[in-house]
Amino acid sequence: MMMISIRLPFEKKKLMVPKGYFAVYVGEVEKKRFVIPLSFLNQPSFQQLLSMAEEEFGFTHPMGGLTIPCTQDTFIHLTSLLHAQTQ
Q1: How far is the C-alpha of 25 from the C-alpha of 31, rounded, in Å?
Q2: Is the pTM of this model over 0.85?
Q3: Family assignment (predicted)?
Q4: Does 7 fall in a domain?
Q5: How confident is the model at residue 10, as a pLDDT?
Q6: 3-class DSSP state for residue 34?
Q7: In a domain, 64, yes or no
Q8: Which of 6, 13, 25, 80 could hold 31 in an S-S bridge, CB 3.0 to 4.6 Å?
Q9: Three-class SS state of 64
Q10: Alpha-carbon Rg for the chain in angstroms
């Protein structure tokens, strides 16, 4: 049996998400991609962000992935707190 290897372009590799994580887009004007642990989905403060995203975007997100409607600074602050809680 012959194995065929397909190399992904650099851009595709960059967009891959490790197992146990998911990507979100955050920002008011310019969206930045963040890769965060799936465990955040269980946190009430993160669930609140998801509710905000649902209210603003419904289930159609402009970036093609989950978009969180808050500033990047707010998101970084929240995820820093969540990382500290899960350690």
Answers
A1: 6
A2: no
A3: Belongs to the ARG7 family.
A4: no
A5: 45
A6: strand
A7: yes
A8: 25
A9: coil
A10: 16
Residue 26 lies in a domain: yes
Tens of pLDDT, residue by residue over 5-17, are 444 454 445 678 8
- Residue 61 in tokens: 């997100």
Residues paired with residue 24 on neighbouring β-strands, in sequence order: 34, 66
Q: What phi and psi, each to the nearest 5 degrees, are found at residue 20?
A: 90, 5
pLDDT digits (tens, 9 = 90+) for 46-70: 999 999 989 987 877 666 678 898 9
Domain that holds residue 23: 16-86
Strand order in the sheet with 32-37: 32-37, 21-26, 66-68
Cα 13 from Cα 20, distance rounded (Å): 17
Type of residue found at 3: M
Q: What is the pLDDT of residue 5?
A: 45
